[in-house]
Recover the amino acids of this structure.
């Protein structure tokens, strides 16, 4: 079996108790990567290997943490090469309403009719958004018995009893093995606008960058966040591009942002019984507001709170650039759902689903990495990802020639050819290929490369026989 080298690198040190289980995890991951958008029975060609994959997911000695143990080690090694790393946290839901036979499903939305699971991930990226790997992942379900309970009931509970505690827990689990000398900034969207989250980060000396939604009380005379930032002068402007919004079918657009910033002291919530015992938190506020937005789009208005000092315009712009990278985890979730079809998995219970999702998480990470790395380092050799027979088959079939190139194709050239296999036209105005055409192309490449291997083996055998 010609296994991708990157798969071996990520899984060779998996914390699985048996070498055979590690080899099985490598086989499954390699098959899934080569066949995204395929059901398990199609992605894994051999019938006995299919049965072994189902046994692997059902094995009580297998867990997501054990599967991803070696990958996290590799992720941390990659993080060491960068001065600052972003750890982007986000939650998504996987809907399995059409698979009610799967045991252990729970509520995953505000509707009592939608069954599934929730997943919360911390994805490590460079400040330029190149995904380095998965630092933490947790999967859970909501008890249907809890449906309909009032907000007032939930507010009486401690943060440890709330689902929102996942942000605090992931802050710990994502950074537990990361050396302190690596400067990691945890980046989150509005769901993480939680006083306890800020408090924990400050207490643990961790760095946060969070888009806030609550107009929190502050110690300054203006008393609230928005009134404080509104009275500040515009410190400068920043021209940037907002990426394509797939959900709302919006094209990328250039925007000009007015930038404001100031230090703040956040007060603890007044509705807490322990409010008087909680400290004020010294943080920094950054506000970015779009200038002259188009009529058909919602204007950019980002209110960011951070533990990092923001005392000059360049520091404020830096935080806005980092927050922009948060969309990378949304692309990661998009690949999981639309590229890997994880919501079509039909497994007997949630524990098996969790193990399968751990494998697919590696596949989704690598597809996203492949797209972004080929843009960031276009001249890198393509064999850092693709096996020899894969790039050879890709080059010859895509260029309709039996002649191999004089030199190894670059990563950008290989990804462009793969995207064309997936339907990318490559016209001047098309820009760079998206993840959808890349995962489609990878699937086609797998069939082409296997045919190439068979043909090469046939010709080699004939040459030997005629010698």
């Amino acid at each position: 079996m010609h296994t991708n080298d990157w798969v071996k690198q990520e899984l060779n040190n998996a914390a699985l108790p048996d070498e055979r289980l590690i080899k099985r995890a490598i086989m499954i991951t390699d098959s899934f990567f080569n066949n995204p958008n395929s059901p398990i029975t199609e992605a894994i060609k051999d019938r006995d290997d299919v049965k072994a994959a189902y046994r692997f997911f059902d094995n009580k000695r297998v867990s997501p943490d054990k599967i991803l143990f070696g990958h996290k080690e590799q992720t941390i090694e990659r993080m060491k090469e960068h001065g600052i790393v972003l750890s982007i946290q986000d939650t998504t839901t996987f809907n399995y309403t059409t698979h009610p036979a799967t045991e252990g499903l729970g509520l995953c939305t505000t509707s009592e009719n939608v069954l599934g699971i929730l997943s919360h991930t911390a994805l490590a990226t460079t400040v330029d958004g190149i995904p380095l790997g998965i630092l933490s992942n947790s999967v859970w379900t909501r008890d249907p018995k809890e449906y309909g309970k009032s907000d007032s009931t939930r507010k009486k509970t401690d943060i440890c009893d709330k689902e929102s505690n996942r942000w605090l827990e992931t802050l710990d689990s994502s950074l537990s093995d990361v050396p302190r000398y690596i400067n990691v900034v945890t980046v989150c969207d509005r769901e993480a606008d939680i006083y306890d989250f800020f408090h924990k980060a400050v207490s643990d000396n961790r760095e946060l960058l969070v888009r806030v939604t609550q107009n929190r009380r502050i110690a300054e005379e203006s008393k609230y966040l928005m009134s404080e930032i509104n009275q500040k002068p515009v410190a400068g402007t920043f021209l940037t591009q907002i990426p394509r919004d797939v959900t709302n079918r919006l094209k990328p657009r250039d925007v000009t942002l007015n930038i404001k910033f100031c230090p703040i002291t956040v007060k603890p919530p007044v509705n807490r019984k322990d409010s008087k015992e909680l400290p004020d938190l010294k943080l920094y506020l950054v506000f970015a507001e779009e200038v002259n937005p188009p009529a058909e789009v919602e204007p950019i208005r980002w209110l960011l709170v951070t533990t990092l000092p923001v005392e000059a315009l360049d520091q404020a712009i830096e935080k806005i650039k980092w927050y922009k990278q948060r969309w990378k985890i949304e692309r990661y979730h998009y690949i999981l759902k639309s590229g890997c079809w994880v919501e079509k998995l039909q497994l007997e219970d949630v524990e098996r689903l969790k193990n399968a999702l751990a494998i697919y998480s590696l596949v989704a990470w690598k597809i996203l990495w492949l797209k972004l790395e080929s843009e960031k380092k276009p001249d890198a050799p393509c064999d850092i990802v693709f096996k020899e027979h894969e790039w050879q088959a890709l080059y010859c079939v895509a260029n309709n020639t039996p002649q191999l190139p004089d030199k190894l194709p670059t990563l950008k050239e290989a990804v462009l050819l793969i995207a064309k296999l997936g339907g990318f036209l490559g016209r001047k105005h098309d820009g760079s290929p998206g993840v959808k055409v890349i995962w489609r192309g990878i699937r086609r490449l797998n069939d082409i490369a296997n045919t190439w291997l068979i043909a090469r083996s046939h010709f080699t055998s004939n040459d030997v026989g005629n010698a």
Residues 82 and 124 are 11 Å apart (CA to CA). The radius of gyration is 24 Å. Confidence is low (pLDDT under 50) at residues 461-467. Strands lie at 84-95, 106-107, 115-126, 131-140, 183-188, 207-211, 236-242, 253-266, 281-290, 301-306.
